[in-house]
Amino acid sequence: ERLTILVEGESLLNDATAIVVFKIILLFALSGAAFTWADAGGAVLDFLEVFVGGALVGAAIGFVLSEFLHRLFTSMSAFMIMTIVVAYSCFAIAEHMLHFSGVMAVVASAITMGILWIPRISQTAIHTVKETWEVIALVSNSLLFLLVGLSVDIASLINRIDVIAIAVLLVLLSRATTIYTMVPATIKWFSLPQVSLGERHIMWWGGLKGGLAIAIVLSVPEDLPGRDLLLDLTLGVVMFSLLVNAPTIKPLIQKLGIDKLTDDELAELKQGMMHAGEESSAFISRFYKAGIVSRSTEQLIHKNTNEVFTSDIPDIQKEQGLKHLRFSALRTEFDELKKLHEINLIQHYTYLDIRNNIQLDREKISSNEAPGTSSDIASKTGLFIRVENALLRGIREHDWAAWLLSRYQNTRLSQRMQRDIAGVLICTSVLEMLDTHLEVDEEEREQIAEKYRERLHRRRSRLQEIAEDFPEFYVRFETNLFTQVALTAARLHAEEDHHDGEIGAKALVRIEKMVHEAISKLPPVSDAAPRLDASELIGTVPLLKGLPTEVLEQLSGHAKSVTFLAGDIVIGEGERGDALYIITHGVTSVYKGDKKVAELSDGDFFGEMALLGDQVRTATVKAKHPSTLLRLTRRDVMQLAGEGTELKHRLTDIKEEREAQTDLVSLVPLLRGLSSEVLEQIVEHTMSVGYKPGDSVMTEGESGDSMFIIIHGVVSIYKTGELIAELKEGDFFGEMALLGDKVRTATVKIKEQTALLKLSHADIMKIAETNPELKERLEEVKASREIVI
């Protein structure tokens, strides 16, 4: 099966690529102009545009149609007609309207529908779709090869047999070059499962040239010089493929031993023969108990069937038995996953992601690699989870996306719960399966069972955490989900009864309609966030503290509640943002680079300076546990500031204070003359600290990594215990720490109540990483060493 997928999949993309390249080359041939290197570059760009454009158009049409067909309440006939329509419509839209590759669009739409739509329909419908298209493909190929027979000029082929032989040789050599170089390189670059040398031999020799090559060459205009030669060469290569490659592919497979049973397949054979023998014995025993056969006949049949199913049973090693048991566990996972998907316990894209990870596990086991935790459903970072994280990163700090972010996070929380519920049921199913394999060594069964018990415990623990963190939401979600599952299971049972003839079509339609209406009437699961008094929390933020109650209530009306799952990044260091966040429930961690510097919980807040302007975040805040936060944007605050005098004055005062701090920072010789943008970033990283008389800010001889600027107050400077200076508002000290000097050269004590701006070496270096201007200044000053204190 794997080899078939490799050969057919490679052929599928090769054919689409060949058509695009052929059309580009044909245009140059028809133009009659000389082919230059500039033309080659243009041809490459044209190829990428046409190929990628066609793929994107086809994927988009396939996605839209898959979702449309999934929601369409209609018959199988309509589904079949739509698949035929999409093939022609994709080609027409891409080829004639958008001037992309129509063939690539058809291929991409078919692949997309195969991924997104086919798994959603019944097995009967899948067989109908496949059989219909197999008939269409058979008719198309038959007509094409009939055309070949009518086009072949035997005499012309014989006359050009030498040229055809050279063409065949070149085709074989070119294919060998790509198969034996690009396949290993692709496996290495993308960490894909290994393809054996024997399988590569089959991919090389089995690359039959047929229908597509003939269709392409017949589309060449008859007035093009050399068309007859091109036609004979193509027909010669195709006939070689049909008369030599095709008949010899089976002997080659046998010669390479690919048709022989592998150790894994031998283990499967033994397991299958044992189960077949047990089933045969059970049937004969049933006939005997019913009095249909005599005791002697039963014993004779038992003897004969035992000889059939116990003869030539291969002995397998312990490692192979364990490997086969792992395969059985994965099959059980997949079977249970399909059942859960059919009854709508998990959404389709969650199903696809979990299925993909199970398939990756199977590939790893086949390649004798440890499956690790790739089947651990809730902790994977598969394709759909990576897409989710990318989407979250793109919308989390945009005001226009606040409503979308809230809805999106609630959906993610629901899907996370679905994945864990599915994980519990899948692990339970696998453990039950392992209990039935008594023929397998108990130690081997226990080795696999222990891993599934661990996963089962983790998933149950995660569900319990969510139930404790969001009890009301959990109950609403649980009720909604399992009501929908129960109704879907009832509909599926009715379909089975109709298939078995127990109920008629009218009854089935009535039942399906009732179930559909009942599901549509289920109330939506509302926000996970608990109800709370937002105005009180907003009033705890220093920037907004002391504002009148009515202003705080207005602000709380604009604040939006957002839930973040464990591991989600709320704000990212270095990103721009315009919102304040207040934690209403949960725990978040604050990181500077890779270092964790703080932990925030209920009632804490961060990002408040963003309310004064578009701010570069100075730290990363990540949800440690599922957390609910209030999000208040600068836009909401500024709208209210135009209405409320108190709020407007407050923001104006804080803005002026910030401007004054920027002026103070600009007085430091180390930082003087820097652009206003760099100075503002430095101020964003500073911290305002208050001291009382007698406090020591730093001590001579001790280590330190921060400089200080006096906002107001007076400090005294001592060296070896002797007072040497007093500094006041606007003065600064400790600036050599910004250059990496950690040992203090003087002692600084507070003379009267003082407020200082504190700036650390780590912060200044972080800013310098993205500001060449500041980096150059630091290097110059460090070289000159002009500062004294």
Fold blueprint:
Blueprint lengths: L1 H30 L5 H35 L4 H22 L4 H15 L6 H29 L2 H6 L1 H30 L6 H9 L5 H8 L8 H30 L6 H27 L5 H16 L7 H25 L5 H19 L16 H13 L6 H35 L5 H28 L1 H29 L5 H16 L13 H5 L10 H10 L1 E5 L4 E3 L4 E2 L1 E7 L2 E5 L2 E6 L4 E2 L8 E2 L3 E4 L3 E7 H8 L3 H23 L8 H10 L1 E5 L4 E3 L7 E7 L2 E5 L2 E6 L4 E2 L13 E4 L3 E7 H9 L2 H13 L5
Antiparallel strand pairs: 1-10, 2-9, 3-8, 4-7, 4-10, 5-6, 5-9, 11-18, 12-17, 13-16, 13-18, 14-15, 14-17
Helix pairs in contact: 1-2, 2-3, 2-4, 3-4, 7-8, 7-10, 9-10, 11-12, 11-13, 13-14, 13-16, 16-17, 17-18, 18-19, 22-23, 23-24, 25-26
Strand order of the largest sheet: 1-10-4-7
Main pleated-sheet profile:
4 strands, antiparallel
What is the count of helical runs? 26
Shape: globular
Low-confidence sequence ranges: 373-380, 785-789
Radius of gyration: 36 Å
How widely separated are the two ends? 76 Å
In terms of structural class, how would the helical and strand content be classed?
alpha+beta
What does the average pLDDT come to? 80
Question: Beta-strand level of the residues, as a percent range?
Answer: 5-15%
Let me know the number of strands: 18
> Domains counted in the coordinates: how many?
7
Q: What is the chains' assembly state?
A: single chain
Task: Classify the helix fraction into a percent range.
Answer: 55-70%
